[in-house]
Structures are given as structure tokens and as C-alpha cells.
Specification:
Chain B: One of its GO terms (biological process) is transmembrane transport. Chain B: Keywords: Cell inner membrane, Cell membrane, Membrane, Transmembrane, Transmembrane helix, Transport. The complex is a heterodimer. By secondary structure, chain A is mainly alpha-helical. Chain A is built from four helices and no strands. In chain A, helix 3 runs antiparallel to helix 4. By secondary structure, chain B is an all-alpha fold. The radius of gyration of chain B is 23 Å and the shape is flat. The mean pLDDT of chain B is about 85. The relative contact order of chain B is 0.13. In chain B, about 70% of the residues lie in helices and about 0% in strands. Chain B has 14 helices and no strands. In chain B, helix 4 runs parallel beside helix 7, helix 4 packs across helix 8 and helix 8 packs antiparallel against helix 11. Chain B starts with 6 loop residues before the first helix and ends in a 10-residue tail after the last helix. At the A-B interface, helix 1, helix 3 and helix 4 of A face helix 5 and helix 8 of B.
């Protein structure tokens, strides 16, 4: 089960980091930012505050962060050792 | 052999059934709301009573109104886009996954990492630059413009690669001794053993297109080309929100993937067990 589990772990991690629609539809991050998630923040920066530069930068940081986490997950699930 | 039902087992089953019902509740509410007259939809929500969940007046007027409009065209567009994506996508993703899982070529792990990154990047973030590329090819309001971004699906490749790696090495080594080439090994050994994974990958790609909203809205806004999700959203405009149509449309939008999933579920049962090798 290790290989399917790796897939589920990675796919789920990524999907939940990139959650956007429920936040935007239900609460728009409020009240006082208490339900804000990174993707909604990026969207707000780009399309509400009109600052696509900072939104792009935040996206790059987000991708780097998720990539780091996913690489740790791969390492922990022993992806490297098998060939 | 029949299992005897112990009290513990019975309790487990009740809890599982309760959880399943909780998941079905929103879907149930969606369905009965679609079958209610529009003015009844929110009428019994507060206070919560029996009429919240039991419809006292049923009507098909929402559904007939829905299908008499342009929604049927939008559903057809969605189906075409999703089905073509699935077929073309499997033709691209399965060989890619096979190469990444089985063939040892230089740069393999670099390509694999790039593919992982491809689904780490939120699609919404690349939608706008992708739009200007597609506009350069003159693909606005065309099926090609809707379908192309869905074909190379990193998640599907990843899923298939994980599955292909689980197929015993002995099988392909035996095939190589008998003189099969890579393509024959892929076609005659790996694909027939991977039906459940191929179906999962197909469903991932189907859902990706089926629920896509931002991209179709950008690339194909014309009346002839808009997909079901866009058509559904347009039932609520600044001047008028027709909840009857929204609920009826949402019901069909969730019904169609469910039917497809239920149909394919039978193939999930005979999964990994069928590789015929002891390790």
C-alpha cells in the first residue's frame, strides 16, 4: 500500500494547500482574516487590491513551500530508495 | 462464508451508515430543492422543521425550464470537452507515466520533479498568461482551447506512475527475454493490468474539466461554447437570481459524474490482486 498511500498523501496535501473556492464563497476570509487561506489572500491581492506583483510573488513562495513539504513526504515514504 | 453480526459489528455499521447519510444530506437537499417551486426553496429553512427536508409541493417546472433554455447546449459542451480530454489525456499520460515508472533514462528524476511541480502550481495562477498564449493561437471560443490545458494532467501521470511501479518487475523482465519492445510491454502487459488506475486517472481528468470554471469563462465565453459550470453561474446575475434554475442545474451537474462513477465502480474491485506473481 505504500505507493498508493504516497499518491493520496501528496495529492491531498496539495489539494488542501490550494483550497480557494470555499473560502471565497463562504467567508471571504473574514471575520478579521480568521478564516483566510493563502490562495484567497493571493486572489485578494491580485484582483481586489490590484497588486498582481505581490500576488505573483506569494504564488512563487507558496509553490516553493508546498514543494518542500512534498519532497519531505516523498523522502519519508521511501520514494528515493526504490528503483 | 457469512459473517456473524456481533453487537460491536452492528454498532460499527450504524455509525458508518450515519456518516454516509451525513455525506448524502446536502445532495438530498439539493435534489428536493430542485423539485420544489422556486418560492419554497428557502421558505422552510428557518426554523428547522420537518418541511425543511420533506417537500410538501413537488414540481418539475424548474427542470423543464432549465432544459428549454441554453443549458442543454452547455451540458453537451461540457460532456464533449470532458470526454475528449479523458481520451486524449490517457493517450498522453499513460505512456508518460510508464516511462517515468519503468524506463531508466537520463534526467528521469528531474522530469518527474517538474511534473510534480506542474500540479503544485495553482491553475488559477497560470490562467491569465495561458490565456494570452492561447489567444496567440486563435483558440478562443473553440473546443481546442477548452480541451488542451486538461490533457497533460500531472496528477494523473503521478497516479499512474505509482501504480505502474507496483507491477512486479519480473513480468517485464520475462517479456524482454521473450523479445518484446517497450511499447509492446506497455500495451500488452501494463495497460491490461492497470484498469483500476486508468479509470481513476480518467475520473481525475473528467472532474478537472467538469468542474472547471475560471478557464472556460476566460477562453470560451460565447453562448455556443460556454460549458455547464459557466452557464450555471450565469443563472445568478446582478439583477436576478433564479434559485430554481440554479438548484436544478446543480442537480444535473452533480448527477452526471455520480452516474459515471457508479458505473465504473465495479472495475475497482478486481484491482492489484490480479498481477499473478508472488514476491
Amino acid at each position: 500500500m505504500r505507493r498508493p498511500l504516497t499518491f493520496v498523501l501528496v495529492a491531498d496535501t496539495v489539494a488542501n494547500f490550494l483550497v480557494f473556492a470555499p473560502v471565497n464563497i463562504l467567508t471571504r476570509g473574514g471575520p478579521q482574516g480568521s478564516t483566510d487561506l493563502i490562495m484567497n489572500q493571493i486572489y485578494t491581492n491580485a484582483f481586489v487590491n490590484g497588486d498582481p506583483g505581490s500576488a505573483g510573488a506569494a504564488t512563487v513562495v507558496l509553490v516553493a513551500l508546498v514543494l518542500a513539504i512534498v519532497l519531505v513526504q516523498f523522502r519519508l515514504m521511501g520514494e528515493r530508495s526504490e528503483r | 462464508m457469512r459473517e456473524t453480526i456481533t453487537p460491536r459489528r452492528a454498532l460499527q455499521m450504524v455509525v458508518i451508515a450515519a456518516i454516509a447519510l451525513t455525506f448524502l444530506l446536502p445532495l438530498y437537499w439539493l435534489t428536493i430543492s430542485a423539485l420544489r417551486p422556486e418560492e419554497d426553496i428557502f421558505r422552510y429553512l428557518n426554523p428547522f422543521g420537518p418541511w425543511t427536508l420533506l417537500p410538501n409541493r413537488l414540481t418539475f417546472e424548474n427542470i423543464t425550464e432549465l432544459w428549454s433554455g441554453s443549458f442543454s447546449r452547455a451540458i453537451a459542451n461540457s460532456l464533449v470537452v470532458a470526454l475528449v480530454t479523458v481520451i486524449a489525456g490517457l493517450m498522453v499520460c499513460a505512456p508518460a507515466a510508464f516511462a517515468l515508472a519503468v524506463i531508466d533514462f537520463p534526467g528521469r528524476s528531474a522530469i518527474f520533479t517538474a511534473m510534480i511541480v506542474s500540479f503544485l502550481i495553482p491553475f488559477d495562477a497560470i490562467a491569465v498568461p495561458l490565456y494570452s498564449i492561447m489567444r496567440g493561437f486563435n483558440l478562443q471560443n473553440s473546443y481546442a482551447g477548452l480541451i488542451l490545458p486538461g490533457i497533460g494532467n500531472g496528477l494523473a501521470i503521478f497516479l499512474l506512475r505509482q501504480f505502474f511501479q507496483g507491477i512486479p518487475k519480473d513480468l517485464r523482465e520475462a517479456a524482454m527475454v521473450d523479445g518484446m519492445g517497450w511499447f509492446q510491454i506497455f500495451w500488452n502487459i501494463y495497460l491490461p493490468l492497470s484498469k483500476p488506475a486508468l479509470i481513476s486517472a480518467a475520473l481525475i481528468m473528467f472532474i478537472f474539466q467538469w468542474q472547471a470554471y475560471l478557464w472556460p469563462l476566460l477562453i470560451a465565453p460565447s453562448n455556443d461554447m460556454k460549458v455547464a459550470a459557466v452557464a450555471l453561474a450565469q443563472f445568478s446575475s446582478a439583477y436576478n437570481v433564479s434559485f430554481g434554475l440554479i438548484f436544478a442545474g446543480a442537480m444535473f451537474l452533480s448527477l452526471i459524474p455520480m452516474l459515471i462513477f457508479v458505473f465504473f465502480q465495479q472495475y475497482f474491485t478486481n484491482s492489484v490482486a490480479a498481477t499473478g506473481s508472488k514476491e
